[in-house]
Amino acid sequence: MSTVESEATTQNGHVGRSLRRKEDPRLITGQGIYVDDIQLPGMLHAAIVRSPEAHATITSIDVSAALARDDVRAVMTGEDLAEDLEAPLAMLWAPPGTEIKAPEHWPIARGKVGYVGQALAIVIGDDRYGVVDAAEEVIVELEPLPVVVDVEKALEDEIVVHEEIGTNKAFEWSLPGGDVDAGFEEADVVVERRIVNHRISGSPIEPRGTVADYRAGELTLWTSTQIPHIVRLVLSMQTGMPEDKIRIVTPEVGGGFGAKLQQYHEETTLAVCAKKLGRPIKWVETRSEHMTTSHHGRDQVDYVKIGAKRDGTITAIHSKIIQDLGAYHMLLTPLIPALGSFVMSGCYKIPNVRTDIVGVFTNKMSTDAIRGAGRPEATHMIETIVDALAVELGMDPLELRRKNFIPKEDFPAEIPIGIVYDSGDYEGSLDKLLGMIDLDGFRSEQAELRERGIYRGVGFSTYVEICGLAPSRAVGPSGLGIQGGFWESAIVRVHPSGSATVYTGASPHGQGHETGFAQIVADRIGIDPQQVDIVHGDTGAGPMGMGTYGSRSLAVGGVSAAQAAEKVADKARRIVAHQLEAAPEDIELAEGSFRVKGSPDQGMTLAEVAGAAYVPENLPDGMEPGLEETNFYDPENFVWPFGAHACFVEVDVETGKVQVYRYVAVDDCGPAINPMMIEGQVHGGIAHSIGQALYEQVVYDDDGQLATGNFVTYALPTANEIPEFETDRTETPSPTNELGVKGVGEAGTIAATPAIVGAVVDALRPLGIDFLNMPLTPMRVWQSIQEAQERGEGPRATEQGRDLPAEARDSAGSGPTIPPGQEPGPAHGGGAA
Ligand code: MCN
Fold it and tell me: What is the pLDDT of residue 11?
């Protein structure tokens, strides 16, 4: 069975084609090797004893009964591991120039716990199930402390999560552009909303897992992660082991969705314990552990305020983000809302923009990056408030958008916060979308159906996102301030027989890099993608790399691979020129042959070139033998994908059940490397946001107990709830890189929630509903309908906030401005039907 389409006659031209994924045959025939498949001689198993309390002092931990079992080799607490650790778990990235209050966060708790599920001890023994039983025999005495789970209550500091810090406010940070006060002065109309962007879980198919093996002074750690090199660096900082003595291997990773963009306590604990015991150890996360202690995402309360002239010209946008950090910072916890602030003005030309962020500790699991990381929240804010503004102005929401789009001819466009959108054609993607949906037809059908009590609605999202993390120049200490650089690396090695291996620092977990990167490299060196192997996820095999997140792999790692391949092709041209006694500049790559321009018969295949390259007597004087190049690529700018989405829903007003029956998306991620893989990414991304918008929510009760610890209570949508997607693309190349590519791995997730919620609001507007907070469970929708009907007509914000309560007329951050009846209903009122 051929796994990749190939045309024997054409060796170039693989980029842009929907080749089937090279990785899929092994994945769908059960031949992939995941962490849990790793078996080593003498391997032990681990289980973690976790806190049942959300906030408590540890009075005692009695491990004697567990240790007395024949099958238990060790039980370690936080104190037992203290001498083996040089540093606590790391927070690596934060908004720039901000003093951040950071509690010590040890892999296993010392002295106190701050959230349900925090590790109290590790039990290591012979048998996977035995250690779970033994963990139940560890007797922990905890003295409960008061708990705070509501982020706005936490801001009042009546209960503090970290007594030693004395406040729950971890940091404040602002990103201003222009003068928002002046912008609101100029405005004829001001609209405000309080948006709750609730907490969700990553929920990949494969939970996390780690196997640690320490032998002969070296540690090998198999772990299910998106960032092997960063895990190695941080582990080295924590354990004091030199980086060169640590090898991180990520076998197949069954999805990550951001939840595996982390360095977790189990990785550190297993590394230390494997060294102490001299035996390999395996730990594999259960689903409930994933729900409890793999980091969550979103969880913001957002106050957003927009001002505009009567003609629809937007003059200012201000948002205040109250970010629930959970109990501790993890790798990027404080950075996540800041990522949203970079796209707070969306694809609109808004002269005055300001985002104020306050990061707040609560007694919950940490939040960090989940697919989109800050940008879905920002997009939800801007698109929701633009829809609300359109209603206020009595304007068509799409006309309002068009009026404010950054025009095509303005690109590259510097926006008021001082960063440059690389390229865009926002009208182009909206036009294409409208060409696919027959909006007029829908509107008349909608009106007709309403007469019969059938409520349908359409919602739109015209989005832009920032990805391709990231140019060191922009993210370094003097720029936007994400410390460090986010370049990527690649080695292209051509073997003497003419096939190639590419080593990349990107570390895929479902995106299909083995195919896309092979297409890119194959085209540049004149072979078939089947002959190009992509090696990733092994710190022992390739140069340093930054991993896969922020839809960066193609725009940074893929470009690095392309540049390495170009260097190989360049050397190949010099070898061929020498062999054929021609000038290197006269050698071209065409039809799988490095040949003399104008003499198609005179040429060499890559296999012939490689054969020559490894025999020095064939080479020009002074040329090194071999055919292999390394490349590090640090882009000049981020890349800025964009698009237009439309969601169609039907709402059953008797039950509150929402059904997405049509979803149409036009995305622009530059020229396609593999259109089918782009489509797959867009499908998955939208499905993720249908989950957040309608079903999924991580819920804690007032005592900090997790109410959604499994897939019965956490309603992840199934194929049954997801419609068929209609997708198309526009292609606006990025000037940032030679492939012109932008990212797409998060685009669907970033775009979709405002379109889905907007569609439900559009459906229910005749019933007096003009705003809804997610998730739109049947219970919440039904309750909102009842409340709207009880209060008669739906509320309206008005000119200069005239009819709003006093606090709502002040700055967006100064008080709750949610219209009456719009407070969230019960936390988890329903799920997938
Ligand atoms: N692509 C392309 N042409 C373009 C742009 C992208 O062919 N012009 C292809 C790329 O070659 C790659 C894929 O699209 O195969 C995604 O590329 P890119 O946008 O660079 O994103 P990353 O590979 O960096 O993926 C990261 C992104 C993130 S941040 C999360 S979270 C995520 C995601 O991608 N988690 C995923 N997609 C996922 N897909 C799966 N199956 N599982 C996850 O956990």
Answer: 44
